[in-house]
Structures are given as C-alpha cells and as structure tokens.
Amino acid sequence: MLVRPSVEPAGDYRQAPRNEEAEQALLGALLVNNATLNKVVEFLEPEHFFSAVHGRIYKAIRTLVLDRNQEASPVTLKAYFADDADLSAVGGSAYLADLAANVVTIINAEDYGRAVYESHLRRQLIEIGEDMVNDAYAHDLETSPALQMEAAEKRLFDLATTGSASAGFAALNVAVHAAIETAEAAFRRGSHITGVTTGLTDIDRKMGGLHPSDLLILAGRPSMGKTSLATNIAYNAAKAYLDTGGQEGSVVGFFSLEMSAEQLATRLLADVSEVPGDKIRRGDIKDTDFQRFVEASALLNRLPFFIDDTPGLSVTALRTRARRLHRTHKLGMIVVDYLQLLSGSARGSENRVQEISDITRGLKGVAKELGVPVVALSQLSRAVEQREDKRPLLSDLRESGSIEQDADVVMFVFREQYYLERAEPSRRPEENDEKFNDRYQRWQQRCEEVHNTAEVIIAKQRHGPIGTIRLHFDGQFTRFSDLDPNRAG
C-alpha cells in the first residue's frame, strides 16, 4: 500500500486539482520500463506534478535515461535521494520500491501522464484567474485594462498550446507522407489547390492557393485596388468554406485599419448585390434593389467572415485577437489592411524601418504560430510615379528590406487604365495634325485594350514561379474576377 506523499487536513474548502494516484502509477510504470518515458516526455515536465517529490523523481528518471543513457530503477535512484527530506517523509528509498511494486500495467502510462498534465492545466487556470482578479483590483497607472486583458489572453493561449506531443522534430518519412496527402487531397478536389482558394482561377493555378504559415504581401499605389482585391479574395475564401462545409476555403479574420467595418461591408454588399457602391452610399437606389440587398445580406450573414476595424492596432494586439478567433472559430486566413498602419512592439521608436521590420516579423510569427496564411497589404513608394513604366518593382516597397525578406510571396496590383486616363495626350509644340492624331489614336486604342483590366504581378514566390496574371476589374462593384479568355488584349 503506497503512502500518500502529501496529506492535507479535511475542511470545508476547495483543494487544488490533483491526481496523485496517477502520478504514482506513472512513476511506477517508468521505473519498471524506462522505454515508457518516450510516451510522455514530449508533453510532461517535472513541474506538472502536484507532489514536489514526484516531480523530482520524474526529473531524475529523465536525467538518467535521456541524458546519461543509464537505467532508472529504485536501486539506481536510491543514491540520488539518500538525503532528500521530502522523500524520507513519505518512506525514503522504500517508497521508490513501492512505486515499482504496485504497478498494475504499463500500457496506460500515457493516460496516466495525460491525467497528471490535465490536473496541472486546471491549477494553472486557477492561478491565471486569481492573477486576473488581483490585477484588476490593483490601480496601476502603467497597466491599462486593455493591456491586462491582452496579457491574460496570451497566458491562456500559451497554456492551451504548450505540452503538445506534436511539437519537435518530425521524421522525413512523416513529412513526406503529409505532403503526399495534401497533394492527393488537391488532386481529388480537381482544383489542384493545396492552400486556401482565392476564388481567382489564374492566381490559384500560379500559386496553388494561399498556403498555411505564409506571409503574403499585396502591394500597390493608391487607387490600384489593393483593398478591393484583398476583400474579394477574403470573400471568395469564406464563401468556398460555407459552400463546401469547410472542405475548401477558410474562416477569415479581416483587420481593417483604414476603413470601418461598415465601409467594408458596403463594398461586399455592392459586390454581391451588384448595386454600385457609390449609389448605396448616396441612397440612390431603386425599389427593386432592396430585394437584391435582402438576398445579399442573407448570404453575407452566413459567411464565416469577421472584421476588426480597431485603428492603430499593435502587432501584439492583433496576435491576441487572432488567437482568440482561431480558438473559437478555427480561423484559417488573416487579412491586414494595411501593414503601415500597424504599430510595432517598440512604441515611440523613431526608426520607422526598424518598426516595419518588427511588424513584418510579427506577422510572419502569427502565420507560423496559427498555421494560417496572412495577407498583409502594403503601400508603395512614390518612386513608381517618376518612371515611364509604372509597373511596380520590389524596390518600390516602402521600407522594402524587411518586407521583402520576411514575405513568402510579394504581389503587386497594377491598373494601367488608371494612369492612361490621367495622361490624355495634348498637342506638343511644332507637332503637326497627322502626328498628333496618330499618337492620340494609339492612346485611345491602348485605353480600349486595358479597359476594366488589372494585372497582379507576382514578384516573389518562395515556393513557386513568378509572373503576371491579368484579371477583370469592375470599378462600380469594386470587383476583381477572372478575365474572359476571349477578350481582346
């Protein structure tokens, strides 16, 4: 009969969660068969034991077996605990022999370990809750309630994601098997998409969708349609998720730092209802349009599409909110509009380049931590406007070094129509009618060729080819879609 290592007097109070019988059963199994350690060592730490002496015994077993490649048994551990007062209080070295002697089976060792770990999690939850209460009572001018909530959410998320047996090294054959399964799933779908669909055929073909853990930068000059394209992609992903019951697409978290949630919703409403957005804002709509609104809103209300329009958000706050959405709704994709409106972790930094570097590293960290693609919009420098060919280059990214380095994909949105419409030819000095008319005619012809078209230039793709994709752009509905292959130009 084992002696309980800790005895507390009975009373009318709640005791901290513990499962000392599981701790004893696990330690006994480990002492009988050291190979059992492999089943629990990935998630179980000495501090997870309620009994301090049990934690020290477990630590000693790990040290002997893993670090010194020696056998851990009651005999070999006896010397380590010869002068241990806590162990003496529960029977000394004889307690080690009792642990091994009372083992019923080693088959359930992992279950014992999980029971020990779950009791630890419950104690940690109690501690976090108590700290939250104490911090809320404390009137600390340096720590606002918002910061307290962020800290508590971070502790909760860290608690939820630590101790996973899936962490650490993965054998190559396991990784290869997972890669084959991903490709096979895409093949069976017929879409050949391994990531989150963008809803745009040519982009999906070029990139295979938006891949988990990737940071994708979508950049362009003002009025090129960055937000429109990002919104279209996010809508398409959310709709695909809805239509397929979660087999394709994803739950979307859209951080709109520039536009309000209402403005973003108006864009989506214009797209789905096919009522121009400017008419919606002015109220210049017909009775028949309301039926379209009803149908469009019914669809939009069902989409797994979440908008956070908090201005001046920090990367830390974004990470916290993304974790929460990931935990509650299985977030599958994040959009940030736009990168330069985020604030870095080092507040008050006068070095904007360093702050942007912190932001991009932070966004890449969010993508890897949650295992979702993060699409971050970015402004381009004015250098584009100084060139005759205004198609963007990687060097046009503002604070480009860190953005280009951290991004897995860099895409540019370019609409030649925007520049052509603002560059109507005028007669040059000493230019005759024939030359002017010829130049004007070429301008008109080019305007017709690029009318309602856009280019998505993939300037960097870490795991795939680069190139240019042409899309159709409908300005009145702020909608990007596949370009009709039969269209001229």
Give structural notes.
This protein is α/β, with parallel strands linked by helices. The chain has 2 domains: 20-161, Orthogonal Bundle (DNAb Helicase, Chain A); 196-412, 3-Layer(aba) Sandwich (Rossmann fold), CATH 3.40.50.300. Helices cover 48% and strands 11% of the residues. It has 18 helices and 9 strands. The protein has a 9-stranded mixed β-sheet, sandwiched between helices. Helix 11 (261-273) crosses helix 13 (287-302), helix 14 (315-329) runs parallel beside helix 15 and helix 15 packs parallel to helix 16. The longest helix is centred in the first third of the chain and has 29 residues, at 109-137. It starts with 19 loop residues before the first helix and ends in a 7-residue tail after the last strand. The model has no long low-confidence stretch (mean pLDDT 81).
